[in-house]
UniProtKB/TrEMBL annotation:
Protein keywords: Transferase
Transmembrane segments: none
Name recorded for this polypeptide: Malonyl-CoA:ACP transacylase (MAT) domain-containing protein
Origin superkingdom: Eukaryota
Span of domain Malonyl-CoA:ACP transacylase (MAT): 1-105
InterPro entries in the record: Ac_transferase_dom_sf, Acyl_transferase_dom, Acyl_Trfase/lysoPLipase, Polyketide_Synthase
GO molecular function list: transferase activity
Length: 128
């Protein structure tokens, strides 16, 4: 992906302004195990594109540092459910994991089911 990294940054610079996160953001790029405080600017997203994914480090840090965490996977299928559950098992965590869509299922129905599960868990949702 390095060969397109420069073009990617140029495209982002036209439309994206990086800001520091307003909620705890655990990076799978830096692997610091701490919430990021730096602006998530075009250069950060270039590193995200080009660098190894430090997924386990980021998820383990979330489990260690955030109370009452709920994982919500937004995508066409909960592809990360297995790896996240393995990490949760190693961390002795039973945090809820919810996928918003599932391959072969009605996407509106699975999305509404996910919203219902979030409601049951008292997760605050800002619909704005």
């Amino acid at each position: 992906m390095r060969e397109v990294g420069g073009e990617y940054v140029e495209a982002l610079l036209r439309d994206v302004q990086g800001n520091p996160p307003s909620v705890p953001f655990f990076s799978s790029v830096t692997g610091t195990g701490k919430p990021e405080q730096v602006a998530l600017d075009a250069k950060y997203w270039q590193r995200n594109l080009e660098s190894p994914v430090l997924f386990k480090t980021a998820i383990a840090a979330v489990l260690d540092q955030i109370e009452n965490v709920t994982f919500l996977e937004i995508g066409p299928h909960p592809a990360l459910a297995g790896p996240v559950r393995q990490i949760m098992t190693q961390a002795s965590s039973s945090a809820p994991y919810i996928g918003v869509m599932e391959r072969g299922s009605d996407c509106v129905e699975t999305f509404l089911i996910a919203l219902g599960k979030l409601f049951e868990l008292n997760v605050s949702i800002d619909f704005v």
